[in-house]
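Below is a filled-in request sheet from our internal design queue. Each sheet records the structural input a requester submitted and the sequence that came back. We keep these sheets so that new team members can see what a complete request looks like end to end.

REQUESTER: design group, bay 2
PRIORITY: normal
MODE: inverse folding
CHAIN LENGTH: 147
BACKBONE (tokenized):
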């Protein structure tokens, strides 16, 4: 399958940037983690990618500049994406995976008129609570079948 989404949309945020964990808001439980991810995906599924990123920002363990750069890239790529795959028409939860007691990965798809866009979130349980360690979205639907 050809890549349908410009690489500028792919927002893989990792702990390679300067951390600001002391300033990140945290979530108290795994249920709150899922609730946040569902809210993010409700925005994405409505075509409001900028709002989706905005919901994640307070909980990000990465440098806020990295998050804002990803948000800006997603904002500027949105029209090109819609031209390729159509408008967003919803989202679907795919799976939750937990590794040990400190990492949870949630996988979703943003549904569009012609293509599914995978979104993946990894939450880390810091001493103060759960926060976003990394997240990504992009065109590689094959990653959904790696199990």
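RETURNED SEQUENCE:
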């Amino acid at each position: 399958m050809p890549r349908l989404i410009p690489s500028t949309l792919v927002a893989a945020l990792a702990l390679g940037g300067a951390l600001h964990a002391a300033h990140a808001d945290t979530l108290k439980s795994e249920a709150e983690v899922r609730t946040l991810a569902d809210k993010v995906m409700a925005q994405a599924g409505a075509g409001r990618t900028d709002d989706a990123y905005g919901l994640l920002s307070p909980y990000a363990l990465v440098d806020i500049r990295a998050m804002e750069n990803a948000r800006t890239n997603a904002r500027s790529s949105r029209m090109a994406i819609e031209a390729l795959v159509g408008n967003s028409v919803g989202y679907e939860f795919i799976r939750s995976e937990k590794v040990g007691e400190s990492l949870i990965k949630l996988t979703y798809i943003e549904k569009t008129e012609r293509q599914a866009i995978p979104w993946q979130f990894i939450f880390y349980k810091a001493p103060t609570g759960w926060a976003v360690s990394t997240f990504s979205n992009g065109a590689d639907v094959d990653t959904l079948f790696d199990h």
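SHEET NOTES:
- Residues 64-85 form the longest helix (22 residues).
- The radius of gyration is 15 Å.
FILED BY: M.R.
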